[in-house]
Design a protein that fits this description.
Blueprint (H helix, E strand, L loop, with lengths): L1 E3 L6 E3 L14 H14 L50
Antiparallel strand pairs: 1-2
């Protein structure tokens, strides 16, 4: 659940409400409560970055230390997106 970012050496939490289902070593009810609390923090605006798309916008983020959530808030406009990834091996 805690990993070290290879370039910065900083510890980051690797928790995702869709992929993290329990914390080893904790009783189920305590594990669920802690995961619910951590995941709820992702919903708080003070922990978010909102990107305002404009023509020719480019956005970069590091999935090793942030979560990405795409919201469809540009209707009725359309968006063409190209995505690329750089492979990383967890440390």
């Amino acid at each position: 659940m805690v990993r070290v970012h290879r370039e910065t050496g900083r510890r980051v939490l690797f928790v995702n409400r869709y992929f993290t289902d329990h914390i080893e070593g904790l009783p189920p009810e305590e594990s669920t409560a802690l995961l619910d609390d951590l995941c709820a923090r992702c919903d708080l605006p003070e922990y978010q970055c909102r990107f305002q798309w404009e023509d020719h916008s480019v956005a970069f983020w590091d999935n090793r230390s942030v979560q990405h959530y795409a919201c469809s808030d540009y209707w009725p406009a359309t968006r063409t997106m190209q995505r690329t990834m750089v492979a990383d091996i967890p440390v």
